[in-house]
Specification:
β3 (97-101) and β4 (107-110) form a beta hairpin. It is globular, with a radius of gyration of 14 Å. The chain has a seven-stranded antiparallel beta sheet with strand order 1-4-3-5-6-7-2, with helices on both faces. 33% of the residues lie in helices and 19% in strands. It is of the alpha+beta class. The chain has helices spanning 3-7, 18-27, 37-51, 53-59, 70-73, 82-90, and strands spanning 32-34, 80-81, 97-101, 107-110, 125-129, 134-138, 144-148.
Length: 151
């Protein structure tokens, strides 16, 4: 299964070249290790099974619209937004995490002393800790979504 199959990438979907994504990590002082294509696919599968399961069950697709976060925006997947999302995010215990873009092509394993707040990047950035307990999405339009995994 390819990343395109998992994320349903289309021509309108946001993509980013690897150099730009690495520049973003540097700008926010996030030491990260790029994952291989197969590793990125595995992380993508984990994110989808934890945070897009209702979307898939209801629509038959992993994506509701052009972006993965649209399921949060349309209340199909339970989530918190903006201030409440950031409050929940800041309450999480620090642990290593994955950070990836909307395309799912660029995925990094990161360790940091604090979780990053990735505002004003102009891109959709997803973060999921290795425990897979939650995710946060910093959207290109500065909306933030936070979702807990539902066990």
């Amino acid at each position: 299964m390819s990343i395109k199959d998992l994320f349903g990438i289309n021509k309108k979907a946001q993509t980013r070249n690897i150099e730009m994504f690495e520049d973003l990590l540097k700008e926010y002082n996030l030491p990260g290790v790029a994952l291989t294509k197969n590793q990125a696919i595995e992380v993508s599968k984990k994110w989808l099974s934890n945070f897009a399961f209702k979307t898939k069950a209801i629509t038959g697709k992993w994506r509701l619209g052009e972006n993965l976060w649209e399921a949060f925006a349309r209340n199909l997947q339970p989530s918190l937004t903006n201030t409440k999302a950031l409050m929940a995010y800041k309450q999480q215990s620090i642990e290593p995490f994955y950070i990836f873009d909307e395309s799912g092509k660029h995925c990094y394993y990161c360790e940091a002393s604090v979780f990053p707040e990735l505002y004003n990047t102009g891109f959709d950035i997803y973060i999921m800790p290795i425990s897979e307990k939650w995710t946060i999405v910093f959207c290109h339009d500065n909306v933030v979504y936070f979702a807990d995994r539902k066990d």
